[in-house]
Amino acid sequence: MFARLLSVFVLLFAFASPAFAQAKIATVDFQKALDSVSEGTAAKARLEKMFADKKTALDKMRGDLEARQTELEKQSVILSDAAKKQKEDEFYQAQAQFQQAYQRSEGEMQQAYVGAMETLIEKMKKLSQTIATEKGYTLVIEVNEGGVIFASPTIDMTPELITRYNAANPASKPATTTPPKK
User: Fold this and answer.
1) Model confidence, pTM
2) Which of the pair, 80 or 7, is modelled with greater confidence?
3) DSSP assignment string, 85-146
4) Residue ranges of domains in the chain, CATH in brackets
């Protein structure tokens, strides 16, 4: 929080200076770029395919749980207290196993997604720096990270980033799903 306030203060101070009159600013939306570049959509499709089997297994577990719950509700009036308790315990155990499997799958998917997207973002950042240097921008702000409330579309370099990224990184070239080395 302090870092964000400090960056806002620095920007406000910079805008007040005479050098600001010569500043050339652009914005970029990396999330929009990720969703638009062919390598990004290919990486997302690959990840979705990779986790389709897990989703199917989770859907089956969910269906089994719902069937167990329905059966437990139907039988609860005719079962003895001991049998009812045993069925409830089995149901709660199956429910806990489902929740663990679901959370594990979500975590794996999130980790794979972040790994794949970090690689693409790093490439986009380098390309953004190249574009900024070529165009003479003194400042490029990522609209989703910088707390930007409004930015004129005329300073958005995202379309150019998408076009140049797709030209340099065709979708047929597989994207890695491991984070870049630092």
Assistant:
1) 0.63
2) 80
3) HHHHHHHHHHHHHHHHHHHHHHHHHHHHHHHHHHHHHHHHHHHHHHHHHHHT-SEEEETTTT
4) 2-168 (3.30.910.20)
